[in-house]
Write a structure and sequence with these properties.
By secondary structure, this protein is α/β, with parallel strands linked by helices. Helix content is about 55%, strand content about 10%. Helix 3 runs antiparallel to helix 4. It is elongated and about 75 Å long. The termini are far apart.
Length: about 270
Amino acid sequence: MYLAVLAGLVLIARQQRRTSWVFLVFPIVYLLFIGRYPLVFSRYAVPVEPFLALAAGVAVAALYRVLQGRSSQALANTALALTVLALVATPTYLTMRWNVMMAHETDSRTLALNWFEQNVAADSTVAVQPLFGRTFYNAPIMTDARLAQINENIPEGGRFNAVRQQVNAALSERPVYREVKFDYDLAALRAAGVEYVLVSDQNWPTVVFNRAPADDLRVQFKRDLETQATLVQTFAPATDLSGFNPAWDVELFPMLPPVVTIYQIQ
């Protein structure tokens, strides 16, 4: 698919038509724009994907015209069908596997949540690793800090007071843990009384895959966890699609469940 896209873009550029440059101007300007930012996420490529698909179509159409001029119509049609099948086979397979995984498997965060609530006493002190201040890639355990944030998000007065009471009552039926702000310093977490640390591979992928600078504080923190803390549980997706990545660092899936690891440090 990548070769077809590249070939199509080259063919479009070589046509030297105004319509060709009208087609190319948006993806070029867009890529130059997002390239200015230090953090580039795979989802940023979504706006240019239709253009890339059309470029691949241009390459396939050009190949078909060449075959028509050099072979029989039947052979050209067969080659076209096989080419299209080869281009869509891998995306179709991966999409089906991802859909089956998301529809039929319990998310690793849910598994971690259920285990934690069943095995760790309420009021235990925890530190939950965030990403940009949010913990959506980690186990969604209820903590006093999270409960306070939820209360702040509910407006004051009127019927909202009743809503707040209902929300608090419902959430308090599950264990509520004391939360200490996460710090990539194991000694500081211990000094703050933290008993359990919850980390997620998707919150620090450069550290997990050994691509972070050696002087990154998170590298030492990970090493300290592995050598000084007790590994309690690890929850990973039953289906591992993370290794299927022929596009180097380009993420092929909308979202993959994280690997949640729980350490005891006290």
